[in-house]
Amino acid sequence: MSESTLGRPIPQINARAKVLGRAVYAGDVQLPGMLHGKVLRSPHPHARIVSIDASAALALPGVRVVVTGADSPVTPWGVHHKERYILAKGVVRFAGEEVLALAADTEDIARDAIDRIRVEYEVLPSQLDPEAALAGEGPFVHAGRTIAHEIAFSRGDVDSAFAGAFLVHEAEYATHAQYPGYLEPMASVARIDADGRLEVWTSTQSAFLARARLASALELPHSQVRVRQATTGGGFGAKIIEDANSLIAGLLALRSGRAVRLVNNRLEDFQAACSSVPERIRLRVGMDQDGRIVAKEVDIVAECGAYAGLAPEVMHVSAMRSDNMHRITNVRSRARMVYTHTPPHGAFRGFGGAQMLFALNVHLDEMAERLGLDPVLVHQRNAIGAGEVSVHGWKIGSTGLLDCIDQATAALQWTRKRASLPATGSRRRGVGLATAMHVSGNRTIGNWDGSTVAIRMNEDGRVLIQSGESDAGQGAMTMLAQIVAHELDIPLAHVHVALPDTDHSPWCIGSLASRVTIVAGNAAAVAARKVRDCLLDAAVHLFRAESADIELAGGTARLRADPARRATYPELVRAHVWRHGGEGIHVHGTWDADTVMPDDDLYGNISPAYSFAAQAVEVEVDVDTGRVSVIDSFVADDCGKAFNPTAVHGQSNGAAAQAIGWALYEHLQLDEGRQMNGNLADYTMPTADALPSLRSGIVESNDPIGPYGAKGASETAILPGAPAIANAIHHAIGVRVRELPITPERVLAALAAAAAQKAGKEIGHA
């Protein structure tokens, strides 16, 4: 029998191709006669396009096509709000918006041609402040519309619960935009194939959502568009459905009749990629004297930017997801997504959970302090349990949250370090804790949250898997191969997973909402069992025996009563082909979660499983400079079952690094709506010297619905990092910082404010 790889640490199956430079990314695709595209972007956050003069560019030898908004389709594109054009038509609404695109024989010629374009703008007043927009001040981004999306709900008797609470605490928190920071900037290659269809290679988290967007925006039938996912060098949410790169490449290919390569440089990617959604959160929580939450009220003002892609859905998550990790019956929430003349915000790893969990975890830490309780106790007493139904109807099939808390605090020696008084010198240490939850699937896009996986067993007994689900580096291809190899009892090396291709792969939603392991994993198991049935059927006819008398193992079928009578999988496949008139073993397995789409009151069980995490950190704060250093970090991730511990630890530690960046370093800064640090020299991502030796642990809660107990393990671990750091800072120096990022300036300002308040009290007592 073959040894199953499930639960064993193994390299990802596509790692060798990447390390050896054989993996083909979108920017690597080379086609005969291929042109190179470039985009001209607006320098203004709001302006009317008076005129565009492209004559000098067109006169440059090698320039083949120039396209403006006047030449592009009239159909706007977007996720739910169809309000953006491939190229701006008449008006630009953010600095960086695409105004013109061209294609030339070489990238150098294209770059020179862009420099020759002359655009005359009439600069218009800009709306850059969401609060001012809500107050009716300044211009509209879109005529007559300030709010892109608004939600509100109330459950239980919130006012009575607050009235009876032992402690009520209210505070305001602010979070900022983070650039997705993937290794591979957005890239696409588009061409018109021999049959006149548009064929696009692109870096994406969803080949089928990309096809739908291309077909809609370019006014083509879906069947006239083929999307082939290239090897994708990271996505973190930004490559789901909100980028314009593939649309522009497709438009240039259609207008030129030639293949066109369009690759963002890093500055262009900063301007084009959707960053995480900035939110201002007012949070009010009531507790009893034992630290149990009795009431919760949230008010969120989120900044959309100029166009609403997935930002409204992100805000939706911020407004209500964290309610479901606690035993709570009285909640009220209001959230508004506001347009501004700034670059669009949208999906980012954690999808709105990070913003709210920063506020909530800091809030709970402060309330625990006021009640004289260890924050660990507050988290433990409020944690929802397996088998319970949350305030919004979420059915918790499994949870390892309490185990995550125990694992993280034990690893950091919480009890000892928490009891130690912070030092009184210039460098002081403290520890902090935060907890989180996330979904493993999401029945809100439409009333289906499943997946289909196709398997073909070839005449040599080896397997090809076809799936439309994306591997953006998180290990989806390895997970599918592990499941199929396990079910068929064949070596992992005998399984090949094809990249998504809308012409050949089954329709799939793609990599979002940490859904691929649970939905595609279950679908792969269904398909693999169908392959086993085909093999068994062939063996039944070959041996003239009953199926119960035959054993399939180790790539062979044999009679239980006479093990010497056996047939290999290749022999069975060939027998199947001849018995079925040339039909090979090619099956499809589909699995859809038994979940419930939210009703009009936003009540419903949206995910087949829910993941949990806890993180404990130790920081050192220099009170003279305000600098914060993370000394130690341990994040415990409840992933249900770890198919590949190496991959899970990689995801957990990568998430922790990204969270540290958001908390302390990264900040997309705008000046009058224009990006000021749109490059990796000025945008401060954490480097190796800014990170501790990251540690992580795995909690296996064995979900009853997940394949072999598994659920999502890509996003939950990013959520508790920032609040754990903020809480550790308070433990070290006694001040709260409620606005991210926690820069040295903000730390010093908080210390100064605390000192002034203390001096004022002393004067008052005197």
Description:
With 766 residues, the protein is α+β, with helices and mostly antiparallel strands. The chain is 29% helix and 24% strand. A 7-stranded mixed β-sheet has the order 3-5-1-12-9-10-11, with helices on both faces. A 5-stranded mixed β-sheet has the order 7-15-14-13-8. Strand 26 and strand 27 (674-675) form a beta hairpin. Helix 14 packs parallel to helix 15 and helix 17 crosses helix 18 (721-733). The longest helix is centred in the last third of the chain and has 28 residues, at 516-543. The model has no long low-confidence stretch (mean pLDDT 96).
Comma- or semicolon-separated keywords:
single chain; 766 residues; alpha+beta; 5-stranded mixed beta sheet
Spatial separation of the terminal alpha carbons = 83 Å
Which segments are poorly predicted (pLDDT under 50) over 5 or more consecutive residues? Answer: none
Kindly report the oligomeric state of this protein. single chain
Tally of individual helices: 19
Averaged pLDDT: 96
Structural class: alpha+beta
Number of strands: 28
Q: Major sheet, described briefly?
A: 7 strands, mixed
Rg over CA atoms: 28 Å
Q: Into which percentage range does the β-strand content fall? A: 15-25%
Shape: globular
Strand order of the largest sheet: 3-5-1-12-9-10-11
Q: Approximately how much helix is present in the residues? A: 25-40%
Compact overview of the structure:
This protein is an alpha+beta fold.
Task: List the topology elements.
Blueprint lengths: L14 H5 L15 E7 L5 E7 L1 H4 L4 E6 L22 E2 L5 E7 L2 H9 L2 E6 L6 H5 L12 E9 L2 H6 L3 E9 L11 E6 L5 E5 L4 H11 L7 E5 L15 H12 L3 E4 L2 H7 L6 E9 L5 E13 L5 H10 L10 E9 L13 H19 L3 H8 L18 H11 L2 H6 L7 E13 L10 E8 L5 E5 L8 H13 L6 E3 L18 H28 L6 E4 L2 E4 L6 E3 H11 L5 E8 L17 E13 L5 E11 L6 H21 L4 E2 L2 E2 L19 E5 L21 H13 L10 H22 L1
Parallel strand pairs: 1-12, 10-11, 14-15, 18-19, 25-28
Antiparallel strand pairs: 1-5, 2-4, 2-6, 3-5, 7-15, 8-13, 9-10, 9-12, 13-14, 16-24, 17-18, 17-23, 20-21, 21-22, 24-25, 26-27
